Each structure stands twice: as C-alpha cells, then as structure tokens.
Amino acid sequence: MNNIHFYIYTVIVSLLISSCGGDIDLASKLWSELDLEAAPNTLASKEKSAGWQLLFDGKTSVGWHGYNMSGIPDVWRVEDGCIAVHGEGGGEEQDIITDGVYQNFAISIEYKLSPGSNSGIIYQVKEDIKYNYPYETGPEFQLLDDSNRPPERRLPGLQSHGANYGMYAPSSQPYHPAGEWNRLMIVVKDNHVVHIINGVEIVRYEKYSDEWKTLRDSGKWADFPDYGKFDEGHISLQNHGSKLWFRNIKIKQL
C-alpha cells in the first residue's frame, strides 16, 4: 500500500469510527469524567476541568421551577442535601423543570426510590400552557421500584426501570433496590441518546430513525403529536405520587 492509498484508508477508517462508534466512546468518556467519591452536591476538580456544572446546590431550589409555574410546588422540598418529591397533595401537574434549556448534553443524577415508587427524568421538554405535563413533549427515563408493587400494577418492558418510557426497554437492570442510591446518566448528542445506570448502558436509540418513528406513531405517543418534536428543552423531575430523593445533579453541555 503506497502512501496515498494509506492516507485514504486512514481517513475512511477514521470517518467510520466517528460515525458509527463515536457516541459509544463519548458516553464512556463522560461517565469516566465523574468523580463517584465526591461529596454530595459538589464538583470535584476533574469534573470542573471537564466542564461539568451543578444543577442543584443541595440547599435551595434555585435553578428549578414548577412546570408552567413561577415557583416550586409544595410537594417538592429540599431536605438533607436532596431535592425530594413527597408525592402527596397534588397530581402529576406538579413536576419541576430546569430554568435552563439544553440541546446536546449529558446529565448525571443520583436518585433513591421509596418502596413501590414511580417517577422519571424527562428531557427535551417544551414549557407551554397548551401542555399539561412535561411527558407530552419530552422522552422519559423511567424510574420505578417494580419489586414492591402488587402484581397487577407491575410495569414490564417498555415501562420498566431505565426504559425510554413507551419506546425502548432496557437491555439490563443494574440498579440497586429501594432505599439505596443509584446514579443515572442521560447523554443526548444530536439525534443519539444513551441511558446509563450505575455505569452500565441500558438503552440506546436514534431519534428520527425509521424505528423511532414507527415506535412513536404506533404506541402510547401516537396520541401526543408533539412528543419528541423538540430538540432543545428543559429537563424535568417527575411527580407521580411517590416519594423519591435526588441529589448530585450535574450537567455538561456538549
């Protein structure tokens, strides 16, 4: 192989790696940037250097507000270094969202479930009074303690813990049980999305692919015409009538 042919070969291989495997490398790299031993609600030096920012200071709800609201619903409280949803006194309209909007990003969150709890992280959310809930526009990373729910209320597959709710089931379930902390990461880069729990990739999909369009148009989201329509949006913590705790909420814009 002469020098010209070798150069062409190298360029082609590089392009193939970039287009086919780059997002895999990106998700792994982003997880490795986190300091898993850092004190709650702080940024370690290596996280700061990598461009991570805190979305929750552990003391106040600054940076968050209720969906289509100016303040924080009473069902949400800052306690013991967590932002916790208590699940009583209101319906799902009491989700909270980030003040900021994000397009390409990675978000890392530690969360703890109560027995039988149900919630989610919703992203690419459009805030508008014509919508009642964030899930009408944004995909959801499902959070669910199915093991402590009665058999008739269990949610398998597309609704299980870690799923892209109603669209993609998780490939595995590497989460700790209710009462223990888990760490999730969502990576959104262009149309590529990855869900990770405790360092294990469990969901990967490509938004707007033929498969994605078929799933969106044939399932639950067929009744929500603006689901998945927006590529930039808020990030939401969901109130679904359960108690959950969230901390170490960190984001990196890509």
Describe the model.
It is a single chain. With 254 residues, the chain is of the alpha+beta class. The protein has a single domain, classed as Exo-inulinase, domain 1 (Jelly Rolls), CATH 2.60.120.560. Helix content is 18%, strand content 29%. The chain contains three helices and 13 strands; from the N terminus they run H-H-E-E-E-E-E-E-E-E-E-E-E-H-E-E. The protein has helices at 3-32, 45-50, 210-218, and strands at 53-54, 64-66, 76-79, 82-85, 96-98, 105-113, 118-125, 140-144, 181-189, 192-197, 200-206, 234-237, 244-253. The strands form two sheets. Strands 1, 3, 4, 6, 9, 10, 11 and 13 form an eight-stranded antiparallel sheet that branches. The two termini are 38 Å apart.
